[in-house]
Amino acid sequence: MTTKADSEKSFEDEWELVLHICDTNNSGTQEDVIKLISETDFTGKKTAIDVAINAIELTPENIKANSDILKKFVDQADFRAMELGFKEKFRFGVLIEVLGIKV
């Protein structure tokens, strides 16, 4: 049986993935994430993904306006997740679907 620890990568790998994805945007987003990381109190439920969503301002309006960029994020996330050895694809697309947004 797979434990939670077995199914998760280290926090550093998650940050590496987020920073890589943000860097593919090539528009200063990576710096935004780094700034947000340094200013965030992680005693709550914050994860690298929460920070990334905040940093790229993943609002319904922004998703609609930036659907091409977000599709690229999904593709890059999947590719980088596989490179880092995640057993399942690491999907920004799932988050977009949860928000009920079609891109």
Offer a few descriptive terms.
103 residues, single chain, 0% strand, disordered N terminus, mainly alpha
Helix content: 55-70%
Total E-strand runs: 0
Give me the number of helical elements: 7
- How many separate domains make up the residues? 1
Report the biggest beta sheet as strand number plus sense, adding barrel if it closes: none
Strand percentage lies at under 5%
The global form is: flat
Would you identify the regions where 5 or more consecutive residues have pLDDT less than 50?
1-11, 95-103
Structure explained in plain terms:
By secondary structure, the protein is mostly helical. The protein has one domain. Helices cover 66% and strands 0% of the residues. The protein is built from 7 helices and no strands. It has helices at 4-7, 11-25, 29-39, 48-55, 60-65, 67-83, 92-98. Helix 2 (11-25) runs antiparallel to helix 3 (29-39). The N and C termini lie far apart (36 Å). Mean pLDDT is 56; it is low at 1-11 and 95-103.
